[in-house]
Amino acid sequence: MHICRIMARNFRIYSVIDIALPTGIIAVVGDNAQGKTTFVEAIAFALTGESPRTHDDREVLQKGAKYAVVKVLVRLEKGEEHWLEIAIADGRKRWIIDGKARRKWEEGWAPFHVVYFMPHEIQIVSGEPRGRRELLDKTLSHWNHSYHFNLLNYRRAISHRNALLERINQEGNLTKESRAEIDNWNMQVAKYGARLIGMRLEFIQRWHPLVWEFFSELGGVGRVELRYVSSLGEDALKLYSSGKIEALLERYIELLEEALLRDIETTATSVGPHRDDLQILIDNMDVRDYGSSGQQKLTLLAMKLSLGKLHELERKMSSIILLDDALSQLDNKRRRKLFEVIQRYEQCIITMTSFEDIPQPFRDICALFQIERGKVTRIK
Amino acid sequence: MELTPALARLMQELEKLPGVGPKTAQRLAFYILSRPKEEILSLARAIIDVKERITTCRRCFNFSEEELCTICKDMSREQSTLCVVADPLDLMAVESSGAYKGLYHVLHGVISPLDGIGPEDLRIRELIERLKCEPIREVILALNPTVEGDATAHYIAELLKPFNLKLTQLAMGIPAGGDLNYADRMTIARALIGRREFSETAE
Ligand SMILES: [Zn+2]
To answer: How many CB atoms lie within 10 A of CB B201?
Structure first.
């Protein structure tokens, strides 16, 4: 699958975008702050309905604009073409396919996956656990309805349990009745939470070898491992692999009970998937603490590209690759490797400050677009 | 047009109703004004009556105009099966399916700490009392498949453990996160007929 054309209005610094896109590698060149990241963001926004840069859709509106629209014409494998359009107006987002309003991009409609890489995302690898949990939650929610549903229920159950903790905290003592109520919510929280953990574990198990594979392919040195670190402890995870969900559930409830007094004091639930982490190790060293910025970048690229591969292998979905400023901090050898990988895809859009950043022979096969003060033009 | 104080007040009151915005309130107020007096008095009386006459049944807490509701008084209904619902609207939904001939117990809500609603705010204690003295053999938990509905069902299930009775829940069919009220009769009937043993962890 590939994008034939992108059109946008009032998208951040762009008053208008309207440009045809070829297949293959598209190099988008421009100085800093000219709109390269926003160009990639606009494409991702049209394809997924979400900005990779913000949770607040209003942020993509051009200053003073009342609405913003981005649409892309995509051509599927069999030659079928469709317009995917996202419109923001009056604080509402509309999803439109071929001029007809839809409820999001219904699953199974468009068999593609968007791999995007943005510089700010490096905090997924280098920063707090929250970023890694978000990546897991986002990926798995798209992967599987059941995960999405459980995640929403889990968050709601946690909010209820926390509200109850707050009440008990204010009452100042734990009555028999309150205890029964807490037990009841422990069960609900554990029920949804255990399912989330189970689905995360199984996903990571299939994902992790591919991350290592891409990491090596991109010229990374060392054995990459993704390890799920749970606030429930390693033993609980082992229970899951031996006894599956039931055994994990029992232990989970025990842990919630053990944490109760502490949780009442802080009025927050201290164990569960909302406190877990995905540890990324290279040769047993945590890449967050010990990885160089080049290594961290390579790791994130490998994670993102391997997700595309996983979608291709397990769901027969092709990937569109959007890479923003992926080349800086990579040496020439690794840049070449990256191009070897991305040239396998039908279409890849990659931004950089200088066309010279592309190693030969790849410079010759790339289409070249230039961005200057919010204007996109094709050079070659 | 300048509104008279009486008209303005009527519109204000109407706007408090669910689903009624300023525009609708205005339309309704003018409609009321345009109708013959007897017709509007009859509407006003109906509103007052509903509030003055209707209380809840002392046994099942369904809406009723007498101490016992029509369902509780109807001895042809199966006295050994009890269907637990969150509110009278859900009772009506189950009743309209035509697939159920037993008794009901209306909780008047579900457990929801976020809204400050705990078990003591619901008719759960009364449910337990009923089970102690009525010859109930099966309790059907017909609560909405939401986080709060599930939590309430589980809480009740725990309390019912000491009783020697069959505990069931509606079969799949009501979409997860959905509402009994919006399910059609056939779906509710199927969910009732296919009801299964209550399980804490079933999806
Ligand atoms: Zn009754």
So the answer is: 13
Number of CB atoms found within 10 A of residue A106's CB = 10
Mean pLDDT by 10-residue block, N- to C-terminus, for chain A (380 residues)? Answer: 93 92 94 89 90 88 90 88 90 86 63 86 94 93 88 96 96 92 96 94 94 95 94 89 83 95 96 96 93 91 93 86 92 93 92 91 92 89
A→B contacts (Cβ < 8 Å), by residue, are 146, 149, 153, 156-157, 159-161, 163-164, 167, 177, 180-181, 183-185, 187-188, 191-192, 245-246, 249
Tokens matching residue A41: 């963001």
Please name each of the domains of chain A with its CATH number: 1-112+318-380 (3.40.50.300), 119-316 (1.20.1050.90)
pTM greater than the 0.90 cutoff: no
Report CA(B70)–ligand 1 centroid distance (Å).
Answer: 7
Q: Where are the domains of chain B?
A: 5-53, 76-200
Please give the ipTM for the structure prediction.
Answer: 0.82
Architecture of domain B5-53 in this structure: Orthogonal Bundle (1.10)
Task: Report whether CATH 1.20.120.1200 matches the domain B76-200.
Answer: no
Mutation choice for A interface testing from B147, B152, B203 by most A CBs within 10 A: B147
A213, burial (CB in 10 Å: exposed 0-12, middle 13-18, buried 19+): middle
Q: Cβ–Cβ of B200/A187 closer than 8 Å?
A: yes
In terms of Cβ atoms closer than 10 Å to its own Cβ (0-12, 13-18, 19+), residue B135 is: exposed
